[in-house]
Amino acid sequence: MADTFNYRIDHHGSLVRPGTLLTARAEGDPEIMLKAEREAVEEAVAFQRKLRTTVVTDGDFPREDFRSAVFDAVSGFRRTDTETPDGLPRWVAETLPKANGPLLADWAGRLTGLTVIAPKASLPSPAYLAATTFAPELAASGGPSSARELGEALAEIIQAEIALLVSRGVRLVQLNNPLLIGHVASEPAAPGALSFEDALAVDALAVRLEERPEGVRIGVCPGWEAPAAVDRARTERLYGGIPADRWILPHDKGTDAELDLVKALPEDRDACLGVVDATVSALEDIDTVMARIDAAAEVKDLEDMAVSPSRGFADTATRPLLSAENQRRKLVLVETVARYCWGNEF
Fold it and tell me: Model-level pTM?
């Protein structure tokens, strides 16, 4: 039975899409695509169950990329012909967003019928979306007047979705904001459309859940890779500003900065350490991984930690970071590391 408090063996949610799913999506027939999505999700659940993970996701199989849960179900956004710096299609907010129905809850509800393992859902954070879609030139024609206004509107939508997900049986929710980690660097990244303070305020709105069943956890992933050095005061502001239960942190390089991110974490917050690199096919040496975990355990109680890959394996459907086989090997290693750390308590 899964450890409903810690969810020791975790992953970010996105998995390598099977070829049959990509082919069906390229053909464009809605019925064929939906059938392929359902079959692929069922296979993904079976795959995760065999790996003995303590959470299961739908692999992001019904979506184009890790932001699509919002873009597919929320009006007010327009896709452009340009790309973001990380190679994703750029979307802009033409009006304040409005949800047209559940974002992930329908798919998450199906997971509960496929396995008794705790379902997990991953969403883009409202601050991340606001920072990357706010277009000041559109304010005069009905667009949001500021990135903060846009972020607060998105936070309301995502908070409502989290509550719906929990009501459908989801027990672990992860919000992804890969821009946050740049704000805590000793030489912070340029704030862009949303300041550090505004980003904290916006994401804080989304994670507050007044009532929740026992075992529900809301986590935040602030980025895929630690900066060269982190500023302790800014890192403490990050953790203090967003009342998340779990922080999903990079821990696959063995740098001082990675350890500093763990050191600054409040005692009452869980840490999920991304201990294997999801971007390279070479398998990590388990003794090296364990040494990094041992170092983290010197500054954070091992009972308040979990392990995962460093990031999702396919944040974009058509550009997986690894092959399906190398993904499997990485996830098996994460499971093995968890057994080394906590035995068979799951």
Answer: 0.94
